[in-house]
Amino acid sequence: ALLPQASSLIGVAGWLLGVDQPRHFLVQTLDRGEMRATGGFTGQYGVLTLDDGKMAPFSLQDVNCLDYLTGCLSNGWIFGRRPPAPYNSWWPFGNWGLRDSNLSADFPTDARLVTSVYQHESGQQVDGLIDVSPIAIEDVLRVTGPIQIPLYGETITADNLEAKLHYYQQDPA
Question: pTM for the complete prediction?
Answer without folding.
Answer: 0.80
